[in-house]
Structures
1.
Amino acid sequence: MAKQEDKKKASSSYSAKDIFVLEGLDPVRKRPGMYIGSTGPDGLHHLVWEIVDNSIDEAMGGFAKHIRIELLKDNVVSVTDDGRGIPVDMHPKTKKSALETALTTLHAGGKFGGDTYKVSGGLHGVGVSVVNALSKWMKAEVYKDGGIYVQEYHIGVPQQNVKKIGTTEKTGTKITFRPDEDIFQKIEFDRKRIVDQIRQKAFLVKGVKMEVIDTRGDVPAYYAFHFEGGLLSFLSYLTEFSDRLQQEPFYVNKDYEDMNVEAAFVYNNDTETQELSFANNIYTLDGGMHLTGFRSALTRVLNDYARENNFIKEKEENLTGDDIREGLVAIVSLKIREPQFEGQTKGRLGNPPARTAVESVVAEALKEFLDKHTQEAKIIVSKGLLAAKARKAAKAAKDTVLRKGPLEGLTLPGKLADCTSRNPADSELFIVEGDSAGGSGKQGRDRRFQAILPLRGKILNVEKARLDKMLANNEIRSLVIALGTAIGNDFSVDKIRYHKIVIMTDADVDGSHICTLLLTLFFRYFRPIIEQGYLYIAQPPLYQIKFGKEMRYAYSDGEKETVITDMQAIRGARRKDKAEKEHDDVSDNTLETPEAKEKGINIQRYKGLGEMNPDQLWETTMDPTKRVLKRVTIDDAQAADRLFNILMGEKVEPRKHFIQSRAATVKNLDI
């Protein structure tokens, strides 16, 4: 096997003539967002993905087995692979080293012609040069043809010619770079984000070892990933804490014309759908033709099977795509020679042949799977039939809600104290815990733009409930009507009545639980509200601290200690002034006198919003000029989905493990 790989390696041409040049580099620094999406955290991390993708392209071609990512001090990142190494010989067109050409010329790489890469995931071939242009400093080390070659760059400009500095028996490329702080809003690499991405890549390129080493802290952190199972290993990871209905997962890996189709799925005893699609190992967040082909095959084949086996009667309607995908966890990976991505960040695959390839391969394999695994087939079809039944029941319940809703011209919930403004951009909705806090909120608010919706007790845990049961809950139904967006298939974020929705709960265990239940509701059924940046969590003060006539609030234990220290200093200064005026030697024992106690520091710990007077609630938590709000974001929907399954799902063991593993670092625990 090793000899065959060596022969394959030797027979594949990869030298200067394989580097194709299209245009210069200058536009990158002028408009970086066009090439990496943004100059925020997403764009910053995109630099790492570009270099890693080049190494993965080598692995997909069978030339690399080991990729290492190092997070070094001073915001430096290094990526090393054991591939063939970027060519260093003279380029016939540019008359420069092929290494310098690839790293300093936009659209210069081995992916624009010939057979150097059959498939690749680089950003249309511009990846490494874009990273170079947006880096304060970059160093390229190439191990090739028995030599070690080096070149350094400053803001994309070579500092010297490529030079040979030694000999070696290994092959590969090492790219080390430091992003330019003049380009990016903030330079700080997120280890978790990088580890999660590398884990995902390792699942997709089976057999390749991928490492992440973080040496920025006092104690280095090391992660290594190596999966021989590929998508099946990925599927097991995604469903680790789920209640799987299938014992035998569906899996297919087959070539169709000049494309390779790989797909796997299982069904969970859940209502959520999780579909991940990849093109040349690039995650296509918005799907595309390959995902459309998978969905079409799944819907068509399962409906055909259900009719042929009398699960669906002759006059009954087919299962919808949503029915069939309820509880589905699926991964679709396509390798295609010339992917057409929509947008620079590859959010959607646009190649029409990709749909045909995936639909044909999945349909044929799924028919065989259902015929061979009749018990699994029965479980899958029954799951779809149950979803269809629930869909019809939910529609009836939903129609009842909407008929009573503001969109139909009828009244809002009686418990809602609405604002007078009808402009969503100016309006705020505070979801508060209980009638007591609701009363304080209603009295303390600015009724021109602030609405108050009190909730009675804890809402239903929607992680464990279907839509029809959920809409039977009075508190959830009131919230749906107040938001104005409708729910389910009729949901429209454009119809929202408030552009600031603030969860305002007590600073205790019950308050945190209610906040978590509401976050689960918004994540599962109103996710676009979070994605639009409309959802917030209020940060009421934890303490009221008084000294004489002076009163201050503290929002954390650390802030409380700072306030106390300040007040003690003020108290000491006042005592000193008083002593000087009275020409009296005041001892520390004076603090114990009744008079001193009356002037002492008084600390009150707030546990409930209802403990505050309306003016205090306004001043600390609702006044736009003084309040502290945390915006809820979804940086990683897949990780968020996994966490909600652990914390709010049916299984106890994953939740128990989650709590135990974090017990040593818990904060703000109420006992």
2.
Amino acid sequence: MGGAMGVAMTLSAMTPEEEIEAKVPKAMERLRAWEEASPEQGERKLHVVYWTPNDREPAPEFRPRLTAILEDIRDFYALEMKRLGFGPRTIRFDYAPDGLLRMHLVRGRKDYAAYDVGSGGEIRNECLPTLRAAGLAPDRETLVIFCNMSNWDPEKRVITQNSPYYAGGTPAGGNAWQVDSPILRLDGLADTGNKVRDGQYGHISLGRYNTIFIGGICHELGHALGLPHNRQRPDEAEAFGTALMGSGNRSYGEDRRNEGRGAFLTLAHGLKLASHPMFSGSVKGLDAGSNAEIEGLKVEPLGKSFRVSGKVNADPEPYAVIGYMDPAGGGDYDATTCTAIPDADGHFVLEASALRPGEGQSFRIVVCQVNGAATGYAGSRSRWSLPYAVGNDGTVDLSTHLAKQRLAGLIDRVNAGDAAGARKELERLTGEGLPERLMSTAETLIGTLTRRELQDPVTSEGGALRLSEARTVAESVGWGRVTRDRVPDPSALLIAGGEVFPHGFYAHADSSFRWKLGGKWKSLTGGAGIAELVSGGSCGFEVVADGKVKWSSGKLQQGPVRRFEVDLTGIDELELRVNDGGDGTGSDWGLWLEPELSR
């Protein structure tokens, strides 16, 4: 205990510069040992596609313009990796004989009007034949697809775009969709005199336009390389500026106009990139993927911070453990990071500090292995995702995580379908004085192992009826299967807004649940929230009575549960609906929590 405390106290007292100096040499020692023992060198390069609709010619000078921009981005990554102590590891390119980047020109099958922001998959599919003809395996490469989907009016100086603009990937391959325009130019970064009117960003300087869109290329490329979002901690902001994978796409190159400090790479993301095959030049073990497991995971409150420790087992060995502190709301753009280098036996200590007040926050752990593999951003769903809350005075509340810990054995038995074993666990917990709410949750989970006779709301007697115990006339969810009083995931628990709920049901967007009431009920109460085992989801919840919306949550993201009370006097049919919040159904794990009918 004393050793762990001493390590954590030392880490918390470090400046960002001291943290880099203490951790990076240890990480690099392991990476070099792996890369130099039976080395397997690989020429992994970034491949560039220029796609244009069928009725458009490519934008003027696209190859020299985009070559200069991408080389500047390459140099940014190289300088940042060198600053962090990894040496100038950076992106590698495929050059044509004329000295410019090789760009695979693809003409779309349709005209401009047939494509929009959501056309990324279709556009990529149109690029595949050209890439394969060039001898590339697109699913095994990192691709940047520039889409000629902007509209520039030089007389009015107005620019608009309707292009896919997103990315995702792993060390084994990724895709980044970008937008090209005639005014996207590296030399434009320093231009403060000329103005343009952008359809999204308003009346801005040409320099600001190029910061946003060149910075956007740099940021989305980070996603294609496997980086999630994260912003800078306050101490990192003071030392370095704005994190690239936070809002650094809006600050890239600001220093060239004396308008800011520009963007930087956090230590967390430098650690991830150090083993990427494009940066390291090593493809050794690339296809092995991640097999990391953590044992003895322990969380300790430290007043206004908390410590997470454990032992990571992995082959090939781990060289870094990253913790992401993600406040509720804001997707994961506002997540900050902490890092640890495991010792020779795999033990690590992460200290989460500089936390923002609020409920429903999540601490996610990512393990990086020397072969470039890393566990998913949220581990295996909620496996290494720890809920916490922070009070207005900065005090950390870990009660939800501690509840998960106490119920872990029972949940394992429930997942195994072992009712007898689960009841034994419940007896043990009862002897330990399990709080009433957790006792109710445990009993309800055990109840999910037996087939329940759901009650008909029309004929049910009594003054109240939980909807999770009421028979529907129709039900559907957008992903997975309908589950009552648990989620269809090994984590099992209904957790939202930092609370554990004994009753409710899973309602991934788009979902609908309908009940016949026969005019027998007076009101409905309950709550709506996003399950904390995912990141970035957003949903719209609606209570519909006889076809009319009686309550709507609006767009709801992770955070406090939204409570409701709806008058159902004389209502024949009730429907609970969940939509995608207007931005797609990814991670939209909606939950209806403690919904209950009353007379």
